Backbone:
């Protein structure tokens, strides 16, 4: 039905001819943005209600003094449902390590939280189908778990800024919310999040539509296809410094894949963009010494590259 | 009454500060409003997601930018 509406607006109302580049690009743009915003609004609202049951204070308590492995798996999973904004990364990090959450487990959470979330899930599901969405979630969790375990094994506690260990952390009572308050919170959260990500979606879908309409088919197959062994590391190296949320990057990678970029390369690029970024490094610099920061970025980048190769080989 | 707005200086924290000022004004109460940006003090309240609102030493909201109406309820 959305497709018909998009066709109607583009070809009947605006009088563009089907099959022309401009017509196809605009049709694609209208169809994709409406579909994505409908999906986003519904699912963010539902997830926000679930999230009210997992405030970071509770997640911290669930993870404190957990052993490695079990702790890493749990932390990566909780990363999906615990609300997290990069501006809270510092208090969150201190709160975790101070209450006895092992360092490696803390990192599993920090990696999974921005990378694996409802926005990524919806956008992937809407544009690529549920299989790719599940593969992304699964491999994102795997990267978070494995990178966290390795960082834990490296015993890098002394590369956390010294003041972090001396900090006195108070205890807050978590205020219980009524269901009405939860609904109210969810409404506000949905509104705030949509307000934040809509420009990314528009720009992302716009660029995607441009690539869709104007870049020749199989244009990327030669360089970014599965036969080029350097495609994955290059995609990761390009993605790491970039900052965008899943909402902006997925429409672009969708169009890139259509033009012949291999699926593993696409997933690796997306993970690199969402999991690691320059602004995040600057924020984390407040709690991590350079060495640990470099190890963190290095290990996650390598893990993402391996995931890229894996999916290029098996899909 | 002592009201503290905890936050490391993101956009949401500034909005919360403005909302608090408005709420205090509308309620007609007298209160001292303080912006707390030092991470030590924020952690001292056990707050892990900013912005947070503390009234007379008790955390009322954390991780959300409370509206003027919501703030008036806890004053």
Residues:
């Amino acid at each position: 039905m959305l497709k018909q509406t998009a066709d109607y607006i583009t070809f009947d109302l605006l009088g563009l001819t089907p099959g022309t580049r401009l017509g196809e690009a605009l049709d694609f743009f209208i169809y994709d943005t409406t579909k994505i915003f409908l999906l986003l609004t519904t699912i963010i609202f539902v997830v926000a209600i679930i999230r009210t049951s997992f405030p970071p204070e509770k997640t911290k308590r669930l993870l404190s003094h957990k052993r490695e492995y079990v702790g890493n798996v749990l932390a990566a999973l909780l990363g999906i449902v615990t609300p997290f904004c990069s501006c809270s990364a510092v208090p969150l990090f201190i709160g975790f390590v101070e209450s006895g959450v092992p360092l490696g487990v803390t990192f599993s959470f920090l990696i999974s939280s921005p990378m694996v979330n409802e926005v990524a899930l919806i956008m992937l599901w809407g544009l690529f189908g549920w299989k790719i969405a599940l593969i992304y979630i699964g491999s994102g969790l795997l990267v978070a778990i494995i990178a966290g375990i390795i960082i834990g094994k490296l015993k890098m506690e002394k590369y956390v800024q010294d003041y972090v260990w001396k900090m006195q952390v108070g205890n807050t009572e978590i205020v219980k919310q009524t269901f009405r308050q939860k609904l109210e919170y969810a409404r506000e959260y949905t509104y705030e999040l949509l307000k934040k990500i809509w420009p990314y979606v528009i720009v992302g879908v716009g660029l995607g539509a441009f690539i869709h309409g104007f870049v020749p088919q199989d244009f990327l197959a030669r360089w970014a296809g599965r036969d080029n062994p350097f495609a994955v590391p290059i995609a990761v190296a390009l993605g790491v410094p970039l900052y965008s949320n899943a909402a902006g990057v997925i429409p672009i990678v969708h169009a890139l894949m259509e033009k012949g970029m291999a699926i593993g390369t696409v997933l690796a690029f997306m993970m690199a963009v969402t999991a690691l970024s320059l602004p995040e490094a600057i924020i984390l610099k407040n709690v991590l010494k350079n060495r640990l920061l470099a190890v963190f970025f290095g290990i996650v980048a390598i893990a993402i590259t391996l995931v890229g190769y894996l999916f290029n080989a098996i899909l | 009454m002592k009201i503290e707005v905890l936050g490391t200086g993101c956009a949401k924290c500034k909005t919360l500060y403005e909302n608090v000022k408005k709420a205090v004004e509308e309620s007609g109460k007298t209160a001292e409003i303080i912006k707390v940006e030092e991470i030590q003090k924020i952690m001292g309240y056990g707050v892990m997601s900013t912005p947070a609102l503390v009234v007379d030493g008790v955390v009322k909201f954390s991780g959300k930018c409370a509206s003027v109406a919501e703030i008036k309820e806890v004053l």
